[in-house]
């Protein structure tokens, strides 16, 4: 299995494409992506075959995990579009896997070692599938952790600025009260006495 795992920033109003080659028809293409940070964690994507036919697309999605069958030999395009955002840059983690590993055929003669290795190979394939499932689950939790951290960081900044503004308001009110009290006990302030 050939795989490419990348994390890339995508600027506001940018379209970024990545490509994967398929050597023969019928191969499986795995595509996983998740927005790690930026804005409301949403991005649009599309997948095109070598004839520029759109196989799959999505608008304003946070993450996805897809498996496609490549019916055409050639270069497949995986494009991300950050057109919803006019200011915010997005950080996208994605993985493109092309399965081109041939499977071994079992021997026609009964009782040979190949029969036993065939069972062993099937067991290894099942374990491999389970490991991929665990890997996807880990990626999901990693993405959730990054999003949670981003939300906490944003909230901390808002609380800091709220605290600063609140402190400035209290100091401003104290200065105003001192000024008003001073004007009561000065000559110009006698006009305002009750």
From TrEMBL:
The keyword Signal applies. SMART domains: EMP24_GP25L. PROSITE patterns: GOLD. Its main location: membrane. Keywords: Membrane, Signal, Transmembrane, Transmembrane helix. One of its GO terms (cellular component) is membrane. It comes from the Eukaryota. It is a single-pass membrane protein; Single-pass type I membrane protein. The keyword Hydrolase does not apply. It is found in: Endomembrane system; Membrane. Pfam families: EMP24_GP25L (PF01105). The chain crosses the membrane at residues 159-181. Residues 15-98 form the GOLD domain. InterPro entries: Emp24-like, GOLD_dom, GOLD_dom_sf. Belongs to the EMP24/GP25L family. This is GOLD domain-containing protein.
């Amino acid at each position: 299995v050939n795989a490419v795992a990348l994390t890339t920033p995508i600027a506001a109003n940018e379209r970024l494409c990545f490509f994967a080659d398929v050597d023969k028809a019928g191969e499986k293409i795995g595509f996983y992506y998740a927005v790690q940070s930026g804005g409301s964690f949403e991005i649009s994507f599309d997948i095109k075959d070598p004839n520029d036919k759109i196989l799959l697309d999505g608008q304003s999605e946070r993450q996805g995990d897809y498996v496609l069958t490549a019916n055409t030999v050639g270069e497949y395009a995986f494009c991300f579009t950050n057109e919803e955002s006019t200011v915010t840059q997005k950080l996208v983690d994605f993985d493109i896997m092309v399965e081109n590993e041939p499977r071994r055929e079992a021997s026609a003669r009964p009782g040979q070692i190949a029969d036993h290795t065939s069972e062993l190979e099937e067991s290894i394939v099942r374990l491999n599938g389970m490991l991929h499932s665990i890997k996807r689950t880990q990626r999901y939790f990693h993405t959730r952790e990054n999003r949670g951290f981003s939300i906490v960081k944003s909230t901390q900044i808002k609380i800091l600025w709220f605290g600063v503004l609140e402190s400035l308001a209290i100091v401003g009110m104290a200065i105003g009260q001192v000024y008003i009290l001073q004007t009561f006990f000065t000559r110009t302030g006698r006009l305002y006495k009750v």
